[in-house]
């Protein structure tokens, strides 16, 4: 029987499509030994330390600050900057903007301990949050960190080597991978290639639904397991 592997960086309270990717896979690999991606203010912002939520009726970035590092630093070595009171600020932001959401109390009970988790390593902080929320959403998968494996390298060849080291024979690519991934290399290596092709569907009030927000937004407004809410999403 085919064993399907999905691979992604350990993101900060990521969007619903990230969790759909986990639920489709037998093994989900957190890509934490690659260089920390840089963009945004000061060159340190990325999906690994920030995400969008509804704040003041608009999509706005929220996240955790990280300590500055040199270029080429792996995600696994990036530290959260707790010199700034970001944890309490994020909790207050959720309280101020989602207090009227139908699942506010249950969601805060789930995410508050995850936000307050004193873990200083960004990758570990994110992995703890992702795996806890995945379990809450009824998702079961084998989770592995890239930093625990021997494979390194770059690009498509690295992905193939990781899949094979994990004992999988199929790879689940995200919808945006087509622009940079060398698909022919998977076939040549005997690895079946699948594309996720997740299409977000409205939840909560259709008039205020915004795709691509943090999973926290989904938990606040819906919160059902993904199998219940999106049984045939694709």
Describe the structure in your own words.
The chain is α/β, with parallel strands linked by helices and 234 residues long. The chain has one domain. The chain is 33% helix and 14% strand. It has 8 helices and 7 strands, in the order βαβββαααβαβαβαα. It has helices at 16-24, 86-98, 104-116, 122-136, 155-165, 183-188, 215-221, 226-229, and strands at residues 4-8, 27-30, 50-55, 58-63, 142-145, 170-173, 192-195. The strands form 2 sheets. The chain has a 5-stranded parallel β-sheet with strand order 5-2-1-6-7, with helices on both faces. α6 (183-188) links the parallel β6 and β7. α2 (86-98) packs antiparallel against α3 and α3 (104-116) packs antiparallel against α4 (122-136). The chain is globular. The protein starts with a strand and ends in a 5-residue tail after the last helix. The mean pLDDT is 92.
